[in-house]
Amino acid sequence: MIIRIYMMRIYFISCFLVWITVAFAQESINANYSKAAEIDSALQQLVKEGVPGVSMAVYSKEGWWTTSAGYSKLEDKTLMQSSNLQYLQSVSKTFMAVCILKLYEQGKIDLEAPMTKYLPEKFSRHITDAGKITIHMLMKHTSGIPEYNSIPAYITKLLQHPDYPFTPEEYLQYIHGKPLTFVPGSKYSYRNTNYLILALIADAITGDHRKFLSDTITKPLGLSNTFYQGDPGYINYSNLVNSYWDRHSDGVLENATELQRKNVALLIGDDGIVATPVDAVKFLRGLMENKLLSASTLELMKSWAKDSKGNPTYGLGLDYAVFQNQIAYGHSGGGIGAGCQLYYFLEKNVYFFIGVNLGTVTESPIHEVMGKTLDKIHKALVE
């Protein structure tokens, strides 16, 4: 029996080493990362607070480090691992923004032109005063276009008919004829609709924005564990986490995997990408290190819209955030059954991704304590 157990351990270690080689390619994981114990403790606290599972990747002057806690599948107690695919949710907007800016660099799109110059009339006819809205306004969330996914009729149909195959035009039909919520360009208000439209524009220009995204981002950066619509087996991956939500905001979790997967599988531009934590960080690092866009275009991406208090808040598909008094660029994401943060601390030159398989669209007592624990993680990263 002792020999058998020993051989099983040898087999497990061998498989683990093979997994490390495949999952991280040439990335060497630093097992002696100085913040490991502090962050691991915080992740374990997240699980104690009710988060099903959490996974994280960090890149700093100490190199690469990954960690996980909790479960990718509560039902059979499958442990969360760094090889699990996580939902990037709205981080997908940064990918979409890079595609649009690459078209800008290629001279195929004018950021100050009205979107009607590129968006087919079958789509633009649903948008009030479409001719007054520029590409730049869409990217910066200053268009004033209403939010399609907050329309009660859409939410009702999504929840009552999770198998319904929504099309991009149907999303726009929910805002057909609705007035703009403010004069285009006059203020900032985050809307998923803007990036749905940008994906349709990229389709019109390239013929297939999914292929363009792959050719522009995932292939050049070698993101072999990043997937979007059109990729083989999309959204049906065995290592994609299960999803959970607190539907009644009472701290009791329910499995929302089917609804989460079917919803995400239909979204373009504003959502739809799944990736491992390391791939997510490699994407942001590639962007910040000018491997995707020129230095001047990256600076353009960082032309910030201001919030109601006059503080910088959002650029062209890039979020301006402050954690622990440290400026960070990146994006966050949330959905029915997942949530994540992907950011780069400028002063500290630290990149991180953290993903949970707990939904953020409903309030929960878990979220309140989760926020405090995330603050501890941010503090550990920048100290």
Number of strands: 14
Which second-level CATH architecture applies?
A: 3-Layer(aba) Sandwich
Number of domains: 1
Report the mean per-residue pLDDT as an integer. 93
Shape: globular
Report strand %: 15-25%
The major pleated sheet works out as: 7 strands, antiparallel
| Fourth CATH level, the homologous superfamily | DD-peptidase/beta-lactamase superfamily
How would you describe what is shown here?
There is one protein chain. This protein is of the alpha+beta class and 383 residues long. The chain has a single domain, classed as Beta-lactamase (3-Layer(aba) Sandwich). The chain is built from 13 helices and 14 strands. The protein has helices spanning 2-24, 36-48, 92-105, 121-124, 135-140, 152-160, 168-173, 192-206, 209-221, 257-265, 277-288, 295-301, 365-382, and strands at residues 53-60, 63-73, 78-79, 86-87, 226-227, 244-245, 254-255, 274-275, 305-306, 312-314, 319-323, 326-334, 339-345, 350-356. The strands form four sheets. A seven-stranded antiparallel sheet has the order 3-2-1-14-13-12-11. A hairpin with a 4-residue loop joins strand 2 (63-73) and strand 3. Helix 2 runs antiparallel to helix 13 (365-382), helix 3 (92-105) crosses helix 8 and helix 3 (92-105) packs across helix 9. The chain is globular, with a radius of gyration of 21 Å. It starts with a helix and ends with a helix. 45% of the residues are buried.
Which features characterize this protein?
alpha+beta, 14 strands, 7-stranded antiparallel beta sheet, 3-stranded antiparallel beta sheet, 13 helices, Beta-lactamase, 383 residues
